[in-house]
Amino acid sequence: MKEAEDIAALRLRLHELQIEHRDLDEIIARLLQTPPHDDLMLRRLKKRKLQLKDRIALLERMIEPDIPA
Questions:
Q1: Which residue range is the domain that position 13 belongs to?
Q2: 35-47 b/e with 16+ CB inside 10 Å = b?
Protein backbone atom coordinates (compact mmCIF):
# COMPACT_ATOMS: atom_id res chain seq x y z
CA MET A 1 0.00 0.00 0.00
CA LYS A 2 2.94 2.32 0.70
CA GLU A 3 4.06 2.12 -2.93
CA ALA A 4 0.62 3.22 -4.17
CA GLU A 5 0.73 6.18 -1.77
CA ASP A 6 4.22 7.09 -2.98
CA ILE A 7 3.12 7.01 -6.60
CA ALA A 8 0.05 9.10 -5.77
CA ALA A 9 2.28 11.67 -4.05
CA LEU A 10 4.63 11.69 -7.06
CA ARG A 11 1.68 12.21 -9.43
CA LEU A 12 0.41 15.09 -7.31
CA ARG A 13 3.84 16.74 -7.26
CA LEU A 14 4.17 16.15 -11.01
CA HIS A 15 0.84 17.87 -11.61
CA GLU A 16 1.88 20.84 -9.45
CA LEU A 17 5.16 21.21 -11.35
CA GLN A 18 3.38 20.99 -14.70
CA ILE A 19 1.04 23.79 -13.65
CA GLU A 20 3.95 25.95 -12.49
CA HIS A 21 5.79 25.25 -15.77
CA ARG A 22 2.74 26.28 -17.80
CA ASP A 23 2.28 29.41 -15.70
CA LEU A 24 5.92 30.40 -16.22
CA ASP A 25 5.49 29.88 -19.94
CA GLU A 26 2.56 32.32 -19.93
CA ILE A 27 4.43 34.88 -17.80
CA ILE A 28 7.47 34.74 -20.08
CA ALA A 29 5.28 35.21 -23.15
CA ARG A 30 3.57 38.24 -21.58
CA LEU A 31 6.90 39.79 -20.58
CA LEU A 32 8.19 39.40 -24.13
CA GLN A 33 5.11 41.18 -25.49
CA THR A 34 5.45 44.23 -23.25
CA PRO A 35 8.66 46.17 -23.85
CA PRO A 36 10.92 47.18 -22.31
CA HIS A 37 11.94 43.67 -21.30
CA ASP A 38 13.50 42.98 -17.96
CA ASP A 39 16.29 40.75 -19.26
CA LEU A 40 17.42 39.61 -15.83
CA MET A 41 13.87 38.62 -14.89
CA LEU A 42 13.43 36.77 -18.19
CA ARG A 43 16.67 34.84 -17.70
CA ARG A 44 15.65 33.85 -14.17
CA LEU A 45 12.19 32.76 -15.28
CA LYS A 46 13.60 30.74 -18.17
CA LYS A 47 16.14 29.09 -15.88
CA ARG A 48 13.38 28.19 -13.41
CA LYS A 49 11.31 26.82 -16.28
CA LEU A 50 14.19 24.59 -17.40
CA GLN A 51 14.67 23.35 -13.83
CA LEU A 52 10.99 22.49 -13.66
CA LYS A 53 11.22 20.67 -16.98
CA ASP A 54 14.07 18.55 -15.61
CA ARG A 55 12.15 17.76 -12.41
CA ILE A 56 9.04 16.88 -14.42
CA ALA A 57 11.05 14.47 -16.57
CA LEU A 58 12.57 12.89 -13.46
CA LEU A 59 9.19 12.40 -11.80
CA GLU A 60 7.74 10.95 -14.99
CA ARG A 61 10.59 8.41 -15.07
CA MET A 62 10.01 7.59 -11.41
CA ILE A 63 6.30 7.01 -11.96
CA GLU A 64 6.72 5.00 -15.16
CA PRO A 65 10.30 3.79 -15.52
CA ASP A 66 11.59 2.69 -18.90
CA ILE A 67 11.32 -1.06 -19.29
CA PRO A 68 13.91 -2.53 -21.67
CA ALA A 69 12.37 -4.45 -24.55
A1: 2-63
A2: eeeeeeeeeebee
Cα-to-chain-centroid distance, residue 44: 14
| 68 in a structural domain | no
- Domain total of the chain: 1
Burial class (CB in 10 A: 0-12, 13-18, 19+), 52: buried
Q: Is residue 48 part of a domain?
A: yes
Q: pTM of the entire structure? A: 0.82
Predicted local confidence at residue 18, as pLDDT:
97
pLDDT digits (tens, 9 = 90+) for 21-32: 999 999 999 999
Phi-psi region of 65 (alpha: psi -120 to 50; beta: other; left: phi over 0): beta
